[in-house]
Amino acid sequence: MSRRRVAIVGVGLDPAGRQVTLEVLESIKRAGVVFVTRATEKIVRTINPSARIEYISTREATMDFSRLADRIYEVNDDVIVAVRGDSTFASLGTRLYRELARRGVECVLIPGISSLQVAAARLGVDWSNSLVLDVHACPSDRMLRLIASSVLMGLKVITTLHPRLRGEDIARFLLESGMSDLRMSICENLGKENERLVTGSASDIARATTNYNAIAVIESMNDVRWESIRDSDLVTCESIPGPTKEEIRAVTATKARIRPGFKVLEIGCGTGALTIELALRVAPDGVVYALDYREEAIRTAMINLRKARLAHLVRLIRGKAPESLENINDTFNVAVIGGTENLESTLMIVYRKLDDPGRIVINAVTVDTVIKSYNVLRDLGLAVEITTCYVARTREIKGKLVFTAQNPVFIITGERKR
User: Fold this and answer.
1) Whole-angstrom Cα distance, residue 101 to residue 105?
2) Based on CB atoms within 10 Å of each CB, which residue in 75, 117, 170, 191 is the most buried?
C-alpha cells in the first residue's frame, strides 16, 4: 500500500466551530476522509458536508490507539483526524501521532485552540512560566504532591482534572498541607453554554462542588521558602527523645542517597526532624512513609512538617514495627531506621519491601545496635558501611567560644551489591 498523509487537527473548544484556525479550516475543506469524535462531528460536517465521516469510538479515543491506527492505515487516501481543543495538549492527537509514526505513516499535527489558552483568557492571566499538567491522564496521589510542591516553589500550576480528582479534591489536599490561603480558579465546561468560573481560596474551593471537565489554575505561594529546619525552630515534646541533630540529619540523608520521586520508609520518626530532611530530598513528587507508635510523636511531627511546608510529601503512620509494616501496601526505594525494639524482624520485612536501588540506613547510639545491624544486613547479602559521626558545636563562655561535644552517632548503611 502506498504511503499516505495523515493530518491530526485541533478544532478548538467551541461546538459552533468559532475557534477553528484558517489552516485547520482549509485542511478539513480539502479532506476526503475525516475521522471524528462525537464532539467534533458537527463542526466537520458544517465545514465539509461531502466528506466521508469515520467515527472514533470512546474506547479508541481513550485506550485502544492501536485499533484506531489500524483503521486509519487501511484507508488508501489522505486522512484528517479532527480532535477537540488543541491536537497537542492533553489530547488524543499526540498519542495517535506516535502510534502512526511507529508504523511509518507520514503524519502531521496542526494545532488548535486549547482549553489552557481559553482558561487563561477567561481569567486574564499570563500562563508563561507556569507548570502545565494533565491530571486527567494520571489522577494519582503523586500528581497531588507534584502540584503542592510546585506552588511552594513559586510556580503557577495549570492542570486538567478527572472524575476522581476534581478541583475540590486538590483544594482539600492543599488545605491538609497547610496552604489554606492559596488562590485557585476552576474553569468548567469551557466553550459550552454551561461554562462556569469558580475562583477563591483553597478553603473556598474545598467546600465547592465542581465539574471534572475543567481546567484548574493554582496560584503560586508569595512567600517562597523551602529549606532544612534548624534545631531551635523545631517543636519538641518532653516525652519524645531527640530531635536528631542537624548535622546527623544531613549525613543520614546523604548516606541514603535519595533522589526526587523516591518512596522512602522511615521507622521511628519521633518529632519529625529527620523526616523533614528526607522529605526535602524526595520532592517534588516522592513520598516518605514515617512510622512511630507514639501518638504524641505523630502529633508533633505533623506540626513540624506543616511548619516546614512539607506535610504534603509525608504520610504519618501511627504503628509499631514490624507489625504495622505489613499494612503498608507499597514498596520503598530506601528505608531509614531511627529506632525499633525488634530490629532483626523489622529488617527482614523491610528488605522484602525494598525496590531499586534497595538501600537501608540505620542510626544507632549503642555498640550493641551497631553489631546487630551489621550482622543482619550482611546476612541479607547487602554491602555494609559504618560511619561514626562526632559533632562538636560552639557555645559562648565568658565572652569566648568553646566547643561542646555531642554524643557520637553510628550510621550503618546496607546496599544491594551491584
Assistant:
1) 5
2) 170
- DSSP assignment of 306-317 equals HHTT-GGGEEEE
CB 11 within 8 Å of CB 91 = no
> Quick one: cell of 391?
559533632
CA dihedral 47, 50, 52, 58 (to 10 degrees): 40
The angle subtended at Cα 275 by Cα 273 and Cα 278, nearest 5°, is: 120
Cell output for 197: 468560573
> Residue ranges of the alpha helices (H) in 112-239?
115-123, 141-152, 167-176, 202-206
Beta strands, E only, 56-195 = 79-83, 106-110, 130-134, 156-160, 183-188
pLDDT digits (tens, 9 = 90+) for 130-181: 999 999 988 999 999 999 999 998 899 999 999 999 999 999 999 998 888 8
Euclidean distance between CA atoms 37 and 40, whole angstroms = 5
Per the CB < 8 A criterion, the answer to whether 77 and 4 are in contact is yes
Predicted local confidence at residue 337, as pLDDT:
96
Q: How far apart are CA 198 and CA 209, in angstroms?
A: 10
3-state secondary structure of 48: coil
Domains (range + CATH), the chain: 5-113 (3.40.1010.10), 116-218 (3.30.950.10), 231-416 (3.40.50.150)
In terms of DSSP bridges, do strands 382-389 and 314-318 run parallel, antiparallel, or are they unpaired? Answer: unpaired
pTM of the complete model: 0.88
Mapped onto helix, strand or coil, the DSSP state of residue 102 is helix
Which residues does 38 contact at the CB level (< 8 Å), separation at least 6?
A: 55
Using a 10 angstrom Cβ sphere, with 0-12 exposed, 13-18 middle and 19 or more buried, the burial of residue 170 is: buried
Distances (CA, A) of 351 to 252, 266, 327, 328: 19, 13, 15, 14
Question: How many Cα atoms occupy the beta-carbon half-sphere of 161 within 13 Å?
Answer: 24
What is the rounded CA–CA span in Å between residue 30 and residue 78?
A: 10
8 Å CB contact between 410 and 396: no
Q: What is the pLDDT of residue 13?
A: 93
What residues contact 400, with CB distance under 8 A and at least 6 apart? none
Please determine, for residue 308, whether its predicted confidence score (pLDDT) is greater than 70: yes
Peptide bond into 284 cis (omega under 30): yes
Show Cβ contacts of residue 383 under 8 Å, excluding neighbours closer than 6 positions. 414, 415, 416, 417
H/E stretch holding 397: strand 392-397
